[in-house]
Structures are given as structure tokens and as C-alpha cells.
Amino acid sequence: MEDKKQQQKSLSNQYPSILSTDDLIFELGKITVDRLNKELILNKVIEKNKELEETIKTLQIENEKLMDDLKASKQIPTESE
After folding, report:
1. pLDDT digits (tens, 9 = 90+) for 50-69
2. Secondary structure (DSSP) of 18-56
3. Secondary structure (3-state) at 55
């Protein structure tokens, strides 16, 4: 019994809002849900970043093709002119 009181005292020092095992489980659940939500958000941001990088690469390629076409049709001066 003394050991259990010592554990509860230790927990209440670490987590002042925790008064029982149920409170501890609830607090740990909140922390877990918060971390999972942050992980999901981070994964979505990473996915969007990859999509944007692909879009930038595609636009760069299209821009190079357009510049080459314009140079070939002499609508813009080339560097050697």
C-alpha cells in the first residue's frame, strides 16, 4: 500500500494535473492523439512539398522548351546575336 502511495506521489510530481490512473491514461491519450495529429499534418505538408517540387520541375522544362522554340523562330535574340 505504501508503494502505491509513493507511485501516486511520484506521478503527481511529474504530472500535477494527474490524480489517479484514469487521469494518467487520459493525459497520455491526449498526448498520443496530439502527436498523431501533428504527424498527419507533417505528412501532408511533405506530400504537398513533393507535388510542388514536381510542378516546378515541369514548369522549368516547359519554360526551356518555349525559350528554345522562340529562339528557333527568331522571335527573341539569342546570346550570340
Report:
1. 999 999 999 999 999 999 98
2. --SHHHHHHHHHHHHHHHHHHHHHHHHHHHHHHHHHHHH
3. helix
Q: What is the pLDDT of residues 18-38, one digit of tens each?
A: 667 888 888 899 999 999 999
Distance CA 14, CA 18 (A): 9
Measured between alpha carbons, how far is 76 from 28 in angstroms, rounded to an integer?
65
Closest by Cα among 2, 3, 7 to 24: 7
Q: What is the pTM of this model?
A: 0.56
**Side-chain half-sphere exposure of 71, counting CA atoms within 13 A:** 10
Q: Yes or no: say if 41 and 35 are a contact pair by the CB < 8 Å rule.
A: no
The angle formed by the CA atoms of residues 61, 66 and 69, to the nearest 5 degrees, is: 125
